[in-house]
Amino acid sequence: MRIEVDGAMLNVAVDGAEDAPVVLTWNGAMCTLRMWDAVVPKLNDQFRMIRIDTRGVGQSTVTTDAESQYTFEQYAEDANRVLDQFGVERCHIWSMAWGSRAALAYCSLYPQRVISAALFDANTGPADVAAQREGGKKAMELQLAAGIERFPRPDGWNTHDNPQAAQRAMTAAGRIDLPGAVPRLTMPVLVATGDHDPNLPPSRELVAKAPNASLVVMENVGHGSVLQRPDLTTEIFLEFQASLA
User: Fold this and answer.
1) In the beta sheet, which residues pair with residue 95?
2) Cβ(92)–Cβ(117) under 8 Å?
3) Which of 66, 70, 72, 91 has the fewest CB atoms within 10 Å of its CB?
């Protein structure tokens, strides 16, 4: 469905029972809401999943006021307007990679709306893309050696109506003090990062600075964990949720 927010049309997908606890997802860099397609069926019986294409990404549009809208503050406001549309006051968060930056920002700006946050592949500093690729390649080799077949990427997981706008949407990461936001994460936080993801050291640093955070290191997993291992990441997410009961 499409939801209008201040001139932008946001592409939104909602799955699960209306009375179930809500999980709001934040997508990885240049990923659309379709990146969660393999995860959603595993959660539908317990949660209501609300997925959003960030403005300019996937099938979401932008306003004519170009640069001012590419901020995590704007994306957070977009998320709130979507939650309001469905009458959701508080939700759980699940994010991956670049999306964990956006989710971290959201949690620090609106902690009153967040019950818990699961930040996968998290990093508040510069991204090492080359190391991410090398780590991902090694992780895939180890998974295959262990008899774990490669999971196919969902259709449309990185397809954008406006590729230029999607690229510009990613620049929001450089417009906020993410390290300074970490101490404001007062809700229960799970950080889960693969042992072959260069984001593991900064993930450890994040956990050390967040008031109520814990770390799970995923064996033989690289950057982009939800896409690599939707089975394992879902299991970890559900274990985290069970620990909150």
Assistant:
1) 26, 119
2) yes
3) 66
Query: What dotted CATH number matches 2-244?
Result: 3.40.50.1820
How, if at all, do strands 22-26 and 48-52 pair? parallel
Q: Which long-range contacts (CB under 8 A, 24 or more apart) does 200-209 make?
A: 202/122, 202/123, 202/124, 202/125, 203/121, 203/122, 203/123, 205/124, 206/104, 206/119, 206/122, 206/123, 206/124, 206/182, 209/179, 209/182, 209/183
Using alpha carbons only, what angle is made at residue 59 by residues 58 and 65, rounded to the nearest 5 degrees?
Answer: 95
> Tokens at residue 229, please?
């291992």
Contact 169, 70 (CB under 8 A): yes
**For the chain, how far is it from start to end, CA to CA, in angstroms?**
32
Handedness of CA 59, 73, 202, 39 (dihedral sign): negative
Q: Evaluate if pTM is beyond 0.90.
A: yes
Burial (Cβ within 10 Å: 0-12, 13-18, ≥19) of residue 87: exposed
pLDDT tens, N- to C-terminus, the chain (245 residues): 999 998 899 999 999 999 999 999 999 999 999 999 999 999 999 999 999 999 999 999 999 777 889 999 999 999 999 999 999 999 999 999 999 999 999 999 999 999 999 999 999 999 999 999 999 999 999 999 999 999 999 999 999 999 999 999 999 988 889 999 999 999 999 999 999 999 999 999 999 999 999 999 999 999 999 999 999 999 999 999 999 98
DSSP class of residue 145 equals H
